[in-house]
């Protein structure tokens, strides 16, 4: 997911995106442990998406405090 798309989302949508991504990451790790994961690079991609969303949330939090 691109940063531009994330910036346009509301706070509630970002929270849902993090929850969904964490759930997906859990499932991917489980599949990795059982040897059923086809694309291990997907774990890295999901982790980075979570970090992107958290970064945007933190930026918004800091903007609110400064205003």
Give a quick summary of the entry:
The chain has 67 residues and is mainly alpha-helical. The protein contains three helices and no strands. The protein has one domain: Orthogonal Bundle (Helix Hairpins).
Question: Can you tell me about this structure?
Answer:
The chain has 67 residues and is mostly helical. It has one domain: Helix Hairpins. Helix content is 81%, strand content 0%. It has three helices and no strands. Helix 2 (11-33) runs antiparallel to helix 3. The longest helix has 26 residues, at 41-66. The model has no long low-confidence stretch (mean pLDDT 95).
**The CATH topology:** Helix Hairpins
Strand proportion: under 5%
Fraction of residues in helices?
Answer: over 70%
> How far apart are the first and last residues' alpha carbons, in Å?
29 Å
Q: What summary fits the major beta sheet?
A: none
* Whole-angstrom Rg: 14 Å
**Overall body shape:** elongated
Number of strands: 0
What's the domain count?
1
CATH architecture verdict = Orthogonal Bundle
State the order of secondary-structure elements, H for helix, E for strand: HHH
Structural category: mainly alpha
Detail the poorly predicted runs. none
Look at the structure and give the CATH class.
Mainly Alpha
């Amino acid at each position: 997911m691109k940063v531009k798309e994330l910036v346009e989302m509301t706070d509630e949508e970002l929270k849902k995106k993090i929850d969904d991504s964490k759930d997906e990451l859990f499932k991917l790790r489980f599949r990795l442990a059982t040897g059923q994961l086809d694309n291990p690079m997907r774990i890295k991609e999901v982790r980075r998406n979570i970090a992107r969303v958290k970064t945007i949330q933190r930026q918004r939090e800091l903007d609110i405090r400064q205003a």
